[in-house]
Amino acid sequence: MRGGDDFGASVAIADGTVVVGAYSEDGPNNSTQNAGAAYVFELDLPWTDLGFAKPGSNGTPALSGLGPLTAASPNQIDLVSAQPSSTATLIVGFSQLGAPFKGGVLVPNPQLVITLTTSPSGTLTLPFIWPSNVPAGLPLYFQIWISDPGASLGLSASNGLRGVSG
């Protein structure tokens, strides 16, 4: 930059919010009007971590989503840190319930319940194609409960996850 300006930026990203901070080390000779400013951008991400995981023997199970949730798009949900080779129950709903359940919080209002099995490493990956006829803006809520003898009441649970169709 001209005149020995030493300009930089810092970036932080969390839950769909990006904060960019600008700074200059040129002191009073700084010709950059926006030095020291912070800019906040909201990303339109289809996936939101809602929290409420319940720890188990293999740590705290974590559920994440990948994909745009748009017509005919490939997507997937991934579970990590679950009890290995164990029964896992995927709960899906169109609204958030947030009710006490088995020493944790049942995040989705159950509409669909599917029994699965975690891998020997305590993970689970569920790829899927988003239907073409789903209207944009439709929220879906996901959570996985895992049979876990080391967890309180014999169950651990992932965080709740909201996906919004695009």
What does this structure look like?
The model is unreliable at 1-7 (pLDDT under 50). This protein has no helices and 14 strands. The chain has 2 domains: 2-42, no CATH class; 47-164, Single Sheet (S-adenosyl-L-methionine-dependent methyltransferases). The chain starts with 6 loop residues before the first strand and ends with a strand. By secondary structure, the chain is mostly beta strands. Strands 4, 7, 10, 12, 13 and 14 form a 6-stranded antiparallel sheet that branches.
What's the SSE blueprint?
Layout: E1 7-14, E2 17-24, E3 38-42, E4 47-51, E5 62-66, E6 74-80, E7 87-93, E8 96-101, E9 104-108, E10 112-117, E11 124-129, E12 139-147, E13 155-157, E14 160-164
